[in-house]
Amino acid sequence: TKIKEHTAQSTAIDSIEYNPETQDLDVTFRSGSTDYRFPNVPKEVVAEWLEAPSKGKYYHNVIKDYSINK
User: Is the dihedral of CA 58, 62, 63, 68 positive or negative?
Assistant: First the structure.
């Protein structure tokens, strides 16, 4: 089951999609239609991100450290 959240409270991030079975996290930014895939992201990290008051800050401090696939 995939989790998808459109992050209206983020000025930078348009949507987040996560597949807990593969641990793939897909992020789409508002500045373009490019999807970025971050593999091997634990579900606990995604859960923290969804609860974070600033999605952009959490992305820059935590998510972006995971290797990225375009």
Answer: positive
Structure tokens at 42: 């634990």
3-6 and 13-19: which strand pairing? antiparallel
- Spatial contact of 35 and 27, defined as CB atoms under 8 Å apart: yes
pLDDT tens digits, 9-64: 678 888 888 999 999 998 888 887 678 899 999 999 999 998 898 888 999 899 98
**Distance (Å) of CA 56 to CA 16, 23, 43:** 12, 20, 18
